[in-house]
Design brief:
Layout lengths: L13 H15 L8 E7 L2 E8 L12 H17 L5 E12 L6 E11 L4 E10 L4 E15 L4 H7 L1
Antiparallel strand pairs: 1-2, 2-4, 3-6, 4-5, 5-6
Helix pairs in contact: 1-3
Length: 161
């Protein structure tokens, strides 16, 4: 169809605005300036973080330190859960991880998926996949609503505007 005959794109839905604002919130967090990573909200209850595991995050034996596993798994699960909560910032109340393979470097993807809960406590899971396509870790977390309004957080508010 010629461009001038195509219908105009509809205004972004409220959910889409919320998801783009969550991506802005992630990008604005000072901790995320330490990592070459980016967040993508794929839909309700789904998130993806792509990052590069570089030698500056390795332990003495030449693989990614466990803090990298935790951070990326927690963030992916957190953002998947926060897609369902439009007014409040969530807080991690517990997180369990299972490490299955060392990350020796390169591109890694953290995939998050909401599992259950919508009111006060939400459960989400995540997994890390290395550049060979192997799952290297998996995690499950519980997240609760805080008293912190998302609209009051600069990274969220500027992306939602």
């Amino acid at each position: 169809m010629p461009h001038d005959l195509m219908p105009e794109a509809p205004e972004p839905a409220g959910a889409d605005l919320h998801w783009r604002a969550l991506e802005g919130l992630y990008a604005s967090a000072p901790i995320n300036h330490m990592f070459r990573s980016s967040l993508e909200i794929l839909g309700e209850g789904l998130s993806r973080i792509t990052f590069v595991a570089e030698p500056d995050c390795f332990h003495a034996a030449g693989a990614a330190h466990g803090t990298i596993y935790f951070k990326m798994l927690d963030d992916a699960a957190f953002y998947a859960a926060n897609t369902l909560v439009t007014d409040r910032f969530l807080l991690t109340t517990s997180f369990n991880l299972h490490l299955s393979k060392p990350i020796k470097g390169g591109a890694v993807v953290a995939e998050g998926r909401w599992v259950s809960g919508r009111r006060r406590v939400l459960v989400a899971e995540s997994r890390l996949v290395d550049e060979e396509g192997d799952e290297v870790a998996r995690g499950t977390g519980t997240f609760m609503r805080s008293r912190i309004a998302l609209s009051g957080l600069p990274g969220y508010a500027s992306a939602a505007a």
